[in-house]
Structures are given as structure tokens and as C-alpha cells.
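Troubleshooting log. The previous run stalled partway through. Resubmitting the same two chains, unchanged.
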Amino acid sequence: MRRWALPIAVIALIVSYPLWAINEPFRAFFVDRLGMDMDTVFQMAVYVMLALGLNIVVGYAGLLDLGYVAFFALGAYTLGWFGSALFSGQNIHFLDVGNTAIPGFHLSFWVVVPLAGLICAIAGIIIGWPTLRLRGDYLAIVTLGFGEIIPDVFRNGDSIFGHNLTNGVRGVTQLDRPGFGQTVNDATGGFLPDRYSSLPDKLKPWFYTILFMCLVTIFVNLRLRDSKMGRAWIAVREDEIAASAMGVPLMRTKLWAYAIGGVFGGLAGSIYGSFINGIFPTSFSFQISVIVLVMVIVGGMGNIWGVIVGASLISWLNFTGLGKIGSLLNDGIPGHAHDVDVTKYKFGIFGIMLILMMLFRPEGIIPSARRKAEFKEGEGEAVLYDARN
Amino acid sequence: MATAESAARPVTTRRLPPPSQLILWFFGAVLVIAVAAWLIKQAVESPSRFIEVTLIGVTNGSIYALVALGYTLVYGIIELINFAHGDNFMIGSFETHSIVTEGAFQLPLYPTTFVLGIPLGTTAIAASSATQRAYTIAMALFFSMLLCMIINVSIERIGYKPLRNQPRLAPLITAIGFSFLLQNIGLIWKNASPQPVPDVFPKGNLIATHGVTYAWGAFIVIAITIPLLVVLTWLVRSTKAGKAMRATAQDQDASAMMGINVDRTISFTFALGGALAGAAGAIYALSIGNTKFDVGFRLGLFAFTAAVLGGIGNLSGAVLGGVVLGLIQAYNEGFFDARWTTTIVFGTLILILVFRPSGLLGEQTPEGQ
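Second attempt completed without errors. Output:
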């Protein structure tokens, strides 16, 4: 029981976050000082989900994926296809809320999210089938290639054989939002709202939705880790040939890791697109793939709690943290006025962080015991993502 | 050990590969034939334009080749994808920008010319003689190569050397870290907008017959690249350091036992790669006419694709891969649609890795022997 005390306390604090942190007296510290308003916290949660998804691919199965953003983009565009006025020639509605007058495909948000997961799983299998047999480095480069190709296809997708599939660089805007409909809204007294609002003081339903999705992701991560599949992943990661000799089907095991990782990227992408209310091909750059990978590595590959800590920390720094630290430094040092724009140095700071982390604590903030052992084994024999060596 | 090895030798049987492999190969063959047919059609329809596009492709390809050589040298010796290499190339192009616009050698982050800059008198190029232009090009090449060489060697010393016995993911992550850092340095050094580089290469056409034109600038790119490749080949083939490099690439432990200073050899490899990246950066800035803090990312990835295309670790492969990639890009932009370049280049990379992972000329890595 005791080992669950800390996680439960932390989860309770996070679940009740919108109830205490954004009101006085805590508001001055959490929102004004740290910049952790509901908007930021939501995006942090999206990145936690992405990092947990990538953790399955990189942390469990040991497949270095440098193009994870492809799944994030695909999930977001699934929402664009099935939850916006993009295909204005069509007029198909299914259980959607508040869009009955708008043309286009409009499936209920709760249908689009699993659909995004499904599409990403299929994409993962299609991408993985010919490429997962490759060696570690080459796999990394191929995934990187897909991470570049998919946003590029979306960018040029406004005239594929004369059809406008993605609206090109203008992006897809006016996306459907989640909601439960008027009946549920009235029955629960507004707790489950008719349609989610984007007003800054009405973001609680968004927060609880992403939190629920994060908890599902954590649950799946935990169960997968301890499953037969999870053990097969560890075996493949540590020694592919030995695993194969023991009867682990290599391709199928790797494909599962890749597809399941992709599912979570897609789920995160679909809700992120809806929240941001605009999907642009330029927002799915290589930088996102790298930042998510950095979260997994800095947190501690293969350790769920490490990954969550790493993802929260780095996404916070990325969104508001660095700016807030910068203004703190500018105001805090007495003497003459300081005007250093810390956010300008963001990628430099991330770069230095990565280098220092690898030099001094390569196993991450909260390492998994097994991964730590793999790192300490050393002597060049313990190859982390290339078991064929 | 000998008996175990001979027992492990594969028994040759006349069996067909599995059906999935056959389907893959079928699609590969169809694709290659379709592309070849499309190119022949273009060549027949407008031969002069085809030749022109081919020349552009070879010119761009030589820049890719120079950068690809840096990737392949490093991968061949320590099996690391040096992600910072493309951004090092960008720093080289920025140094050239400094030399041409400020007339001085500048260190990154020290833009004040008279603090750490060395005045070279290279700005007066607008109405200057051919000698002055040649001097500017030589200075830009020399200092860009020098700076990139120093950066590349320092990166190896700080970031990769301490991690040589770690799992290969560790130096790869530091490489990404250095890539971010260099990009940020570039962003702060010159700002986020494209930096125009004044014309130094002579204007006008070298060839203009039968509707085929070939610019002087493009010719100079190749005229600089080929001597660099010759020098590199000589260094690797005929000098003691080159021999040490090839030995270290084959087996680090054995070469250490033979008295080769492995650390120094690896540093030498990084110096060579850095110098080539600096040269590529200078040529790029002078021939394209502008540069930006993020050019290194895309060009670096393309160059890495070129290295894989030719067979990683293989020097002639990198040059061939660079030229082939330049041609692919030129044919796409000349006859199809420039918007699809990224997709086509990375699509090529994926197809190569699926069908022929060892590249066109075969890989040469410690592992791939």
C-alpha cells in the first residue's frame, strides 16, 4: 500500500489542480509566477501523453523513432477530416454537437478520437512493415524521413490530383469541439457540458478530458510493461538474436510497439487539434519529434514516472517556464534594468541540457532499474537500440 | 573459433526468397522502370532543357557531396550520425557571409569586427577586379573551413569522446543537442531573417549554345569541389594519417595495439569532415546568394540521405550519392513540382533502405565488413 501512497497523492493534487491552483491565494504563485495556467497545463498534458506513447516505442521496445510527430500530425488531421468544414461539398453529421448548420463531415468528437487512434495504428503498421527490419541507425533515419514526409504531404495536400485534402498551408480551422449534448448537460447540471468552450475561464472540461486520456495512457503503459508483450519488447531490446531464438516473433513484436506508440500519438493529436482550433502543417516539425524524445530520455527511458516528470518539466519550460524564469532573472537582479529575452535562447538551452544530461546522467532523472543496468554495463557492448551488433 | 565460423557459413540453396520479398522487389523494379521511362520522355521532348537541368543537378549535388562526405567519414569511423554536421555547415555559410559583407573574420556571437574580428579587406568587391574576387573566395573558403574544423573537433572532444563506450543512443542525443545549440548560435549571431550574400562569383554564362546555358557561378562550384575531393582522396589514400583512419575504421582495438593514436585519428577525421562542411557552407553562401540559420537542418538531412544512398562509410559512395540526390532534386524541380522535393528525397531514402540498405556502392563500417 505504501508504494502507492506517493502516486495517489500526486494524482489527487493534479486532479484537483483547477480547483485550487488557479484561485487565490495559490494563483499568484502557480499562474503568475510559474505560468501554469489552464491553457499551459492542458498542453503539458498533451505532451505527457505523447511522451508516454513514444516511451512504448523507444523505452520499451528500444526502437529509436525520430519521426513521432507524424502520428501527432495524422491524429490532428483525422480530426480535420472528420470534424470540420474541410470537405464543404459533403454534409454528413453523426452525433455531433453544435455544428448542424455547417457542411462537411462531422462525426462526434468521441468517435473521431478512437478513429484517429485506429488510423495511426494502421499508418504505424504500413510504415513499420517494410522498415522495422532495418538496423537501429537506419530505422532512426527512416522514421525521421516519415516524420518529414507526412507534414510535407499535408502541406501540399491542397491539390492532390485536383482534390483539396488538407487545405495546404492555410491549414484546417474551425474544428469541432467535444461535447455531450444538451440532454447530458442538463442532467449533470453543466458538469458535462453541451459543447466545450474555448474561453480561458472555462477550460476545466478540457483539462479533465486530457487527464482522463493521460490516465488511460498510463494504465495501458503499466499493463503493457508487465504483459507478455512487454517482456517480449524487453527481450528484443536487449538481444534480438537471443529473443528470436527463444521464439519471440521479432517483426510482430516490433510492429505492435510501433503501432501502439502511434495510437497514443494520434489520440493526443486529435484532442490537441480541437483545443488549438487550427491545424497547420508547419506546426508539425522535426523539433516536436525531438522534444518528445528529449522528454523520454531526460525523464528516464522505460520508466513511466520518469517520463511523466520529464515531459511535464520540459513542456513547461518550452511553453511558459523559460519566459517566466527569464523575467524572474531580469527583475530579480538588482542594479540596472535587465532585458534579456530568455526564450530566444530556448533551443540553445535545450541543446546544452541534452548534452549535460548525456554526459552526467545518461539514464535520466528517474531511471528504470533495468535501463540503468543496461547503461552501466558499458564497454560498447550494451548497444541500446541496435541489438544486431 | 575457426570451426564455429566455417559452420556458420550460409549453405547456398536454390530457394526463392519469401513472397513478401518478391512483391517488394516487383514494386521496386516497376518504380525504377517508370522513373527511367519518365526521364527518357523528358530528355526526348526537350533535350537542351534536360541537359541544363542535369548540369544544375550536378552543381547542387557537389554541395551535397561535400556535406555527405562529412557524415560518411564520421559514420565510417565511430558509427555515429553526426546530427550537428548540417548546422556546422550553416555556421560555415555564416562565416562566409561575414567575410563578404563585413570584410572580416568573425567568431560566432562576437559580431563586433574590431574586438575579435580580423579585417581582411574583402568587402570592396562590387567594382573590383577578378583578382579581388578570387582573393575574397579564397579567404571565405579558408576561414569557413578553419572555423568549421575547429567547431567539429571541439564537438567531438566535448560531446562524443566521453561517451565512446556508452550505448550508441547517448552520443546521438548529444549530437542532437549540439545541433540545437549551433542553430541557436546562428540565430543569435545573425538574426532569423535570410542573410543576403553579395555576388562574388562572376556573372554571365560559360556555355550558351543550342539553347543550353551554363553559368560561371555553377562552373566555379564544381571547380572548387573537384580539387577538394582530390585532396581528400590523397589524404585518405596516401598519407599516414589516412592509413591510420582506415585502420581505425576497421578495428579500433587492433589499430590501438598497432600503435595508432585512436583519439588523434578520430579528431583528424572530424577535422576533415568539418573542413568539408565549411567549404560546402562557403560555396553554398556564395552560389545561392543568401543563407539562413536553419538551412543546415534540411540540407544536412539531404546530405545524410546522399551518404546513405551511396553506401554509408564509403567515400566515393558519398560523392555519387550527392550527385544522384542533386539530380533527383533538379529533375523534380525542373520537370515536376518543386513543392514535392522533401517528399521525393525522403521517399528515395526510404526506398533505398528498404531495397538496398547497403547503398549503391556498399557500406564500409566496422560492422558492415
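Takeaways: Residues 133 and 200 of chain B are 6 Å apart (CA to CA). Chain B touches chain A through 49 residues (CB under 8 Å).
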